[in-house]
């Protein structure tokens, strides 16, 4: 367990990235073998999801007692809190349960409803992504920057899928993306899709509905890497989710038109 420490933004950032890395390594010990159950249609959960979330919660409660915590598996109430921790213990659980190495641990801290620190750990390839507000986005000590691609016909776009929207809406989105000349893809982890945007591997990530725990850390990575997004954290987004668009800077407005989501900024 992490030791108690200070409360500056830098302290929070260091705590967040160390905790994400520890939790990711813990999750990876049961990669592909953790017992599973179903929460809903195409919504799998493993025993390790719950174990990792409890581990993360205990560390936060010890370090920052009394601060709000919202996790995918055990819930919580982060609405209106001055500081709120948002946890996805395993983003990409369907991949994780099947032994597909495309998943991560995602932890973010919101200050007054906006991410101030965030970290993702991808233990399959030992990539630790992290960002602090105003401090840039990083992966294993290397500063990240979004793609410079300005040609929509050369763009690669990941299109996340949610059961909260009709399949017809998702297929229409894929059609718009491909008709615009973009390459469409889906890999099963919204958090890592956003990390790919921040790292310049793809030009955009879009999802018609995504939960805050899937994207809070990733959105900070994109912003600190020079990217753009819609105003995800409006309304009841922390508790109930919202549509999401995250892009590089060069294609932001053009891709917002393709996606049919509020213009990025």
- The CATH topology of the largest domain corresponds to Fructose-1,6-Bisphosphatase, Chain A, domain 1
Succession of helices and strands: HEEHEEHEEEEEEHEHEHEHEH
CATH 2nd-level architecture of the largest domain: 2-Layer Sandwich
Q: Percent of residues in helical segments?
A: 25-40%
Strand and helix map with partners:
Blueprint: H1 9-28, E1 36-40, E2 43-46, H2 47-63, E3 68-71, E4 83-91, H3 93-97, E5 104-111, E6 114-122, E7 127-132, E8 137-139, E9 142-143, E10 156-160, H4 167-179, E11 183-185, H5 190-198, E12 204-210, H6 212-224, E13 228-229, H7 237-240, E14 242-247, H8 252-259
Parallel strand pairs: 3-4, 10-11, 10-12
Antiparallel strand pairs: 1-2, 4-5, 5-6, 6-7, 7-8, 8-9, 12-14, 13-14
Helix pairs in contact: 1-2, 5-6
Features:
Fructose-1,6-Bisphosphatase, Chain A, domain 1, alpha+beta, seven-stranded mixed beta sheet, 14 strands, globular, 265 residues, D-Maltodextrin-Binding Protein, domain 2, disordered N terminus, five-stranded mixed beta sheet
């Amino acid at each position: 367990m992490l030791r108690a420490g200070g409360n500056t933004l830098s302290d929070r950032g260091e705590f967040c990235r160390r905790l994400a890395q520890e939790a990711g390594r813990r999750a990876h010990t049961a990669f592909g073998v953790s017992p599973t159950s179903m929460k809903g249609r195409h919504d799998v959960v493993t025993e390790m999801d719950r174990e990792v979330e409890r581990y993360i919660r205990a560390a936060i409660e010890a370090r920052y007692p009394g601060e709000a915590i919202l996790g995918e598996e055990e819930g919580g109430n982060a609405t209106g809190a001055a500081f709120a921790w948002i946890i996805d213990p395993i983003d990409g659980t369907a991949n994780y349960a099947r032994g597909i190495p495309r998943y991560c641990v995602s932890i973010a801290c919101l200050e007054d409803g906006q991410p101030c620190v965030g970290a993702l750990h991808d233990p399959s390839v030992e990539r630790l992504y992290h960002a602090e507000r105003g401090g840039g986005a990083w992966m294993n000590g290397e500063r990240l920057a979004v793609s410079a691609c300005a040609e929509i016909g050369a763009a690669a776009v990941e299109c996340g899928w949610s059961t909260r929207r009709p399949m017809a809406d998702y297929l229409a989105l894929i059609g718009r993306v491909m008709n615009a000349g973009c390459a469409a893809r889906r890999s099963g982890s919204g958090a890592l899709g956003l990390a790919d945007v921040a790292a310049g591997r793809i030009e955009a990530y879009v999802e018609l509905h995504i939960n805050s725990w899937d994207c809070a850390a990733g959105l900070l990575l994109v912003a600190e890497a020079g990217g753009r997004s819609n105003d995800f954290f409006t309304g009841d987004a922390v508790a109930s989710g919202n549509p999401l668009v995250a892009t590089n800077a060069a294609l932001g407005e053009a891709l917002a038109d393709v996606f049919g989501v509020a213009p990025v900024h």
